[in-house]
Amino acid sequence: MATDQEKNKQLLIKLLERPGNGSCVDCGAADPEWASYTLGVFVCQSCSGLHRNISQISKVKSVLLDPWSDAEVEFMASNGNDAAKAKYEQKVPVFYYRPTHRDCQLLREQWIRARYERKEFVCVERQEPYSAGYREGFLWKRGRDNGQFLSRKCILSERDGALKYFNKHDAREPKALMKIHTLNASFQPGKIGQPHGLQVTYLKDNSTRNIFVYHKDGKEMVDWFNAIRAARFHYLQVAFPGAHHADLVPKLTRNYIKEGYMEKTGPKHTEGFKKRWFTMDDRRLMYFKDPLDAYARGEVFIGSKENSYTVLPGLPPSTQGYHWQFGITIVTPDRKFLFTCETEEEQQDWMAAFQGLVNRPMMPQEYAVEAHFKHKP
């Protein structure tokens, strides 16, 4: 005869089959096997660790391994993921970034804290730090030449349409003015070497400029990130009047399609292959000597097959001077670009990334970007 513990475990497994409970309430990962028995939600193992950081609010157990009381199981049955979302996500701003299981720990932890601990999406006044249209503060910025992080005053102003930073705290003129319409931000803790590291990019003379910043306070950094998204959202609302929110949100910030090392050769294909760090930012393939360089050594536009762009495995038979064996040839209307990867797996990943772009028809605004590449000196 089944014990009470076995019955409770079976009841919990049944609860996981209810709509909404089959994925982590916080990051959407499939098949959560943990639960917060004080919030009444099912979470993945990774998010369960983040819930332990707010133990005064959320206490977690394994659905399958830990003992459950009748009262705890009843509480889970009377709540669940959909009920929690209805309660804690009443007023999430449309621009606010909702992290997935693929996102860094910082984004997921601050999303969890914002919902359950700070209750930011129940009390709108708590959204002031990122929704006001103006933000000022100090961030640690990596020096372009020496790699040192130094404190820099930063101002984000929707009215000015720009994010600015100042080299001196009392300086009147900014060292850099980054227009909101070309601004992007993505968390890169591993690359930057800081758990709260943010990579900010903008276009300067139609070339990408990278800035690397962080703040010791994770909430502060995520607030800056969402403030940038808010500014971008309001800019796009003006630029594309009548556009649906669902069409604008994917344009607020973007993660890179792929990053990593490849080797490349020059336009004549007679130079030796050199190892470079590559970043695929939508249709811009950029390469750097170092992953934290401020400017790319070069950029390649990847268009669509309708416009005579193709991606081929391998290199032309006559190619010399490479030692990584897994080649890729990108054919553009103007020339062929030759790359090599260290492993077959890397080659397949890059091929899939390039093929995805080549198979995607070009948008009208992408033709203008392509034209800039063609007229670059």
Descriptive account of the structure:
The protein is globular and about 75 Å long. The mean pLDDT is 94. The chain has 11 helices and 17 strands. Helix content is 29%, strand content 25%. The N and C termini lie far apart (81 Å). It has 377 residues and is α+β, with helices and mostly antiparallel strands. Helix 1 runs parallel beside helix 3. A hairpin with a 4-residue loop joins strand 16 and strand 17 (336-341). Strands 7-6-5-4-10-9-8 form a 7-stranded antiparallel β-sheet. A 7-stranded antiparallel β-sheet has the order 14-13-12-11-17-16-15, sandwiched between helices. Residues 132-233, 255-359 form the PH domain. InterPro entries: Arf-GAP_dual-PH_domain, ARFGAP/RecO, ArfGAP_dom, ArfGAP_dom_sf, PH-like_dom_sf, PH1_ADAP, PH2_ADAP, PH_domain. Pfam families: ArfGap (PF01412), PH (PF00169). Keywords: Metal-binding, Zinc, Zinc-finger. This is Arf-GAP with dual PH domain-containing protein 1 isoform X1.
